[in-house]
Amino acid sequence: MNPLAKLKILSLEQATVLPYLTYRLAMDGAEVIRIEHPVYGDPNRFVGENRLGEEKMNSYYLCINAGKKAITLNLAEKEGQELLARLIKELDVDVFATNQLPRNYQKLGIDYERLRSIKEDIVWLGVTGFGPDSNEAAYDPILQARGGLMELTGEPTGFPQVLGIPLPDMGASEHGYGLIMKALFTRAATGKGSRIDLSMFESTVSWLTVPITLTGSFGQRITRRGNTHEFFAPVSVFQTRDGFVYIAVGNDRQWASLTELEPFRGLRDPAYERNEGRIKDVENLNRRLSGVFKELETEEVLRMFKSITVPASKIQSIKEVLEDPLVSSRLLRAKDPRTGIEIILAPAPYRTDFLCERGGILSFPPRFGEHNELYFGERLGMGGEQLQELRQRGII
Question: pLDDT (tens digit, 9 = 90+) per residue, 334-362?
């Protein structure tokens, strides 16, 4: 049996960073229950197109919320906090997670000390922009800007650019996933729970391994370089007769093999035999290479580079990525039982036992408050009239 299927995750979540983390746990088979305010809900429910023809189920929300359950709970009210305490205790919740601002922890009754008093071995995770002592608002592009990622992205003479994916969001999610697994291991070994404070800013800066060391130690200025590489050449995008390819020559042996290929023999030059020489003349070298690539078909380039074991790839559109044989067989799916609409989801970063057992099928992203009856009614034993009263009073 999959041991992660026994995990119960209660998550007061919104936006991307925490929903992606709990989505990763749902792909492991954990029982993930997302909590939302009974009026406002997750703002991401309203982002994107309304493909289902109903409120609070827009397309952007659908991408990272499959496989979860959803309840509503007003934690600003004492009765809402009491219901949270019952959920944690009676469901035997393993992990509570939130990406609320720290100033809201005690106000909402979700601070670690309170939840630990309810369940001593609980693993508590608080995801913040800049740490538990800061209430500064933070969205992914802000963290990209402050964390140096935008300074490293774009053309050398152009404006700084944001990345094509929200790396601070996704990166912090991955770090949070690892920290939760570490805390669960510690609990299994010692019986003790944990408090985890995860700063998205600290997570973002931790990716800057080379820039931090070279700047801090040796005073080098590391900045935008477009498609080229600061330390290796040729590494860049080149236009072919029918598209674009990215090539990455990582050492002198690979360069020697490249210049053995007929179209590239004209680039044999003693000055280019060592990577240092190619870096010094990279603009001229890339200009000469561009002239060669423009005369070649993309597939022809890929065959030649594969034959000499030098990394190269076509620049694929997202549609082409979906059709890639290494991707197409691992795509996940979720079908809406109400409308029959099926959505395609990005594959998990690894093959989980849970997904293999289910053939890559997850439950459809939950509707707003869809599982209130399941958790407050069946699990906590509340009757229909009691639930209706809680709805009318804005508690659930």
Answer: 999 999 999 999 999 998 999 999 999 99
Scanning the structure block, which residue is given the tokens 């990166």?
171
| Residues labelled as active-site residues | 169
- Order the strands of the 244-248 sheet from edge to edge: 235-239, 244-248, 312-314
**CA angle in degrees (0–180, nearest 5) for 310-314-318:** 140
Q: What is the pTM of this model?
A: 0.94
Measured distance CA(24)–CA(355) in Å, rounded:
11
Q: How far is CA 277 from the centre of its chain?
A: 39
| 1: pLDDT strictly greater than 80 | no
From the list 198, 180, 35, 212, the residue with the least C-alpha distance to 129 is 198
* Domains, the chain: 3-206+327-392 (3.40.50.10540), 235-314 (3.30.1540.10)
pLDDT tens sequence across 359-379: 999 999 999 999 999 999 999
